[in-house]
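Title: Comparing notes on inverse folding

I've been comparing how different people in this forum approach sequence design from structure. To keep things fair, I'm posting one structure and asking everyone to reply with a full sequence. Here's the target:
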């Protein structure tokens, strides 16, 4: 990787970690009239939607830097590591990760689409490798 590519990749990893922190902080939002409209104090995990949209995009951007699964999966690994840090270490003794269905929804909504994109990178890398070596299948004998 060139210096500019490394800088872009580092920015993607930092953005993934920052999004992980923000998504955890906004996970307990409720429709109770404090920040969002009052609709009976229903939990509204908007950060799970944000994770579901941003994580596949970050994985796709990382795969355009270098078509390798480890590079493409870097934003997902950084995001998961950030979530893990806040599960294990809580700054100031505050409860950041809530123990209910919203945390599970955040993990699934962020990790599942990103994992599918990493699988897409694996498939494209295999096709490129087969094209370079000339061992691609032709569909017949």
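Reply #1:
Here's my take.
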């Amino acid at each position: 990787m060139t210096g500019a590519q490394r800088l872009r990749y580092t920015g993607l990893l930092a953005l993934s970690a920052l999004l992980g922190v923000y998504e955890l902080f906004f996970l307990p939002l409720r429709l109770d009239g404090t920040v969002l409209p009052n609709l009976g104090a229903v939990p509204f995990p908007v950060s799970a939607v944000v994770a579901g949209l941003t994580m596949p995009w970050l994985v796709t951007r990382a795969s355009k830097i270098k078509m390798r699964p480890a590079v493409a999966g870097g934003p997902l690994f950084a995001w998961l590591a950030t979530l893990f840090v806040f599960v294990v270490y809580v700054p100031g003794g505050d409860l950041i990760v809530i123990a209910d269905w919203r945390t599970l929804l955040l993990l699934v909504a962020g990790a599942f689409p990103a994992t599918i994109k990493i699988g897409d990178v694996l498939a494209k890398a295999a096709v490129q490798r087969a094209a370079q070596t000339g061992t691609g299948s032709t569909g017949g004998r």
